[in-house]
Amino acid sequence: MAMALRAASRVLLRAGSRLGRREAVDGARRFANKRVLVETEGAAGATRIAVMKFRNPPVNSLSLDFLTEFVISLEKLENDKSIRGVILTSDSLKRGNQTKVAATEKTEEKRATRDHGGRLQERPGIFSAGLDLLEMYGRNPAHYAEYWKAVQELWLRLYLSSLTLMSAINGASPAGGCLLAITCDYRIMADNPKYTIGLNESLLGIVAPFWLKDNYVNTIGHRAAERALQLGTLFPPAEALKVGVVDEVVPEDQVHSKTLSVMAKWLAIPDHSRQLTKTMMRKATADNLIKQREADIQNFASFISRDSIQKSLHMYLEKLKHKKG
Ligand SMILES: CCCCCCCCCCC/C=C/C(=O)SCCNC(=O)CCNC(=O)[C@H](O)C(C)(C)COP(=O)(O)OP(=O)(O)OC[C@H]1O[C@@H](n2cnc3c(N)ncnc32)[C@H](O)[C@@H]1OP(=O)(O)O
């Protein structure tokens, strides 16, 4: 009987659910899609916290597949009544023995950093490189529309989430990476001057959409957002803290523990009053997009299809490819 149970549980653990794999690890629970790993902490029956780790090599860009998996994972957590708080972070760790594959190799796999066993690796020190430039360059308008709908969906889900969301920013966080962070209720950033955060779209020759601009204004205020958006400012941690893009800066090895302790304070507040307050603060901003979603998709598709914009993106991609260091 015991053997049969063990065999059955092995089968269950191996079986991939529609949403991804589910495993039991050291008492904690986890499920994983290919690009998002979700680990939950806390005893069964008690309030639990989930940590969503991005692992979309090489730079956690928000590709269509990543956005889809992210939304599925978030929905799953929203539906789990024992989960009240979620931490967004990158799975990218400093690892040794990495080799950057030649820039002349074009496919996604080949662009990634690999270890000596040839396995794909995240590049270290990146929270998220933002929207995937390859989803916005050299594709057709139908693809742009599909992609933008997915970007909107993720933003709406995060911005209106009833969960307490925190970001543990353990790396560079430009543009769409900053978007992920500023949808959260609280942001803690690693104190590493190599990491920057902000909306740098203007440097790429593109423009942040109005709803992202609104989210930024709600976070850092109108004047600071006006200046930072025009200049495409990427703030190092100390400046990000000063302007209010992040709420705390802590030594890199304390980002996770600090986020957990802040989360515990937030979870001491009754859910219903915190959630109603959050909705009161955010609904108008989200409704502004909801009522004109389709027009926003069409605007994006036609804007990004323009020759001049494609040319800017091409130049930016080339610059990234040939940059030193
Ligand atoms: C009229 C108004 C209408 C409204 C229309 C709206 C318009 C659209 C607005 C959309 C809003 C856009 C938001 C965005 O998020 S755009 C993306 C912005 N992201 C960036 O600028 C980040 C660029 N990347 C970097 O700065 C660095 O890569 C980074 C600091 C993240 C990491 O540096 P590192 O040195 O570690 O790694 P590499 O630079 O060598 O990069 C490794 C490979 O990854 C490729 N890469 C990097 N970023 C991206 C990306 N965002 N998407 C796709 N690919 C990316 C990079 O090219 C390297 O590739 P190779 O190995 O082939 O060289």
From TrEMBL:
InterPro entries: ClpP/crotonase-like_dom_sf, Enoyl-CoA_hyd/isom_CS, Enoyl-CoA_hydra/iso. It comes from the Eukaryota. One of its GO terms (molecular function) is isomerase activity. The keyword Acetylation applies. Keywords: Acetylation, Isomerase. Residues 98-119 are annotated as: Disordered. Residues 103-119 have a biased composition (Basic and acidic residues). Belongs to the enoyl-CoA hydratase/isomerase family. This is Enoyl-CoA delta isomerase 1, mitochondrial. It comes from Apodemus speciosus (Large Japanese field mouse). The lineage of its organism: Eukaryota, Metazoa, Chordata, Craniata, Vertebrata.
